Amino acid sequence: xSTPLTTVRSASLIGYLDLAQSLGxxxxxMMRRVGLPPRCLDDPETxxxxxxxxxxxxLSAHAxxxxxxALRLAARRSFANLGPISLVxxxxxxxxxxxxxxxxxxxxxxxxxxxxxxxxxDTVTIxxxxxxxxxxxxxxxxxxAVGVMYRILHELAGPQWKPLRVCFAHRPPRDPxxxxxxxxxxxxxxxxxxxxxxxxxxxxxxxxxxGQGMARFARQYLDQALSRQHSGASDTVRQLIAALLPGGRCxxxxxxxxxGVDRRTIHRHLAAEGTTFSTLLDExxxxxxxxxxxxxxxxxxxxxxxxxxxxxxxxxxWFRTAFGCSATQWRKQAQHPPMP
Length: 340
Hints:
The protein is α+β, with helices and mostly antiparallel strands. It contains 16 helices and 7 strands. The protein is globular and about 50 Å long.
């Protein structure tokens, strides 16, 4: 049976019970509140709903008053929590090769997380984006994702490694000291992406070569898991749209080129799944704009560019059609909801 797109491994909550209880939360009650049975944590491979995990992290941060709740959870993670993937990463020759391999198998860990690597001169940027429709903030889930990636890089590259910059699209916390303690001083908010900027030279560091016997079997297991995981055309197109939008206008032709097919083939496969390219484009834009407007203070002109609009006027027309009001009005309502 294929794993639904909106699931993550229950390993994503490793350390949650201890952390919550250390902060005075009834961890089991919090989990049941979002529809997660505590027994799901018995097996780290159990698939659980990504939306339930997102809601659990947001509720826990609110209940404790700790805006760095997710980072405290990330701090409890170790390389071994990656399961079989950790064995495969250790056989790679360099940190960069291990990072590429990690991105290949990340879908098995979290099907709602899109990770991509971009090179520009002497820097490498690891961008992370959450896919799917979210009714409220995703800042804790995003900080957990970036925090875990930071921990993985730190373990691969060694304790001397430092990122050039860590970026978040959401607005800064009231007290950023916890974020600086975790990532170092170069952590920025209200940026146009979520992720980590590294020196390319740091990622060329060689890794100590471990025995490859277990790694070979682990790779076979992971490849078989990927082959069993069904990904329809619409899922693939959605991921490509999310990846291509910040670079400018995203078209069906561009997506088709990335998939190695022609545009008519894309339209045919999407029609067979009951959707169209323009429908998926609007859905992804709607998901991303909700997050940008609710959680960040980016100027709307920059938000328009991130969604692939060449002019703010085009963005304004699209937003009013999709949401029934202007983006300015929507942001004001999102930041200051009416009292019940």
